[in-house]
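The material for today's practical consists of a large collection of protein records. Backbone structure tokens are a discrete shorthand for how the chain folds in space. An example says more than a description, so a record of this kind follows:
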Amino acid sequence: MDKFTNIKKNEIKRETNEDLFKNDEMSIIKFDQKDIITSKDQVVILPLFKDEGFVLMKYEKLPAFKFKYKDKAEYSDQDFYLTSIKGDYNDDETPTQNVRRILHEKTGVVLNHMFPIEVDKVLFKQENNVGQYHICILIINYNDFKQSSVQTTEENKVVKISLGDIDNIKTYDLVTDYCILKLKYENNIS
């Protein structure tokens, strides 16, 4: 009877990464003969205040959007864009803690400690980016939260959008568009 000592374990051969670029926001590496972006995961939140009939969104300056549309006359005076509320995902926190922290930091909304939070979906930002979006759509009733103050600046504003105007929102990024469409579909908002 043969012994199993002749069997050798197949070792997985890993390719080494070649750093091409790095800054505080992201890095680009060469992996498997492709350029891969490594960026931070982000939590994306679209809160619907159901009883009040509005959603909260960011109204912010986005230099990349302005650069893209710099030669188009209809965008020449547009400095601000509507986006969903986003913040960096912290691996030391649970998904629920991340949502609570980011919602408070960005909007001043403090959710009731009994409020159930569920991260709906985790999606890659792009096919060549390892960073992911942790998407959370919150349906908040009048007794589910309290409002504290939030520091807004000229470049960073939070705005209320009435559900009556939700069809008129002009989105520029895919994740915000996804959140709005999902919110409308799941809550029969037309």
About this structure: Residues 95-107 form the longest helix (13 residues). The chain has one domain: 40-186.
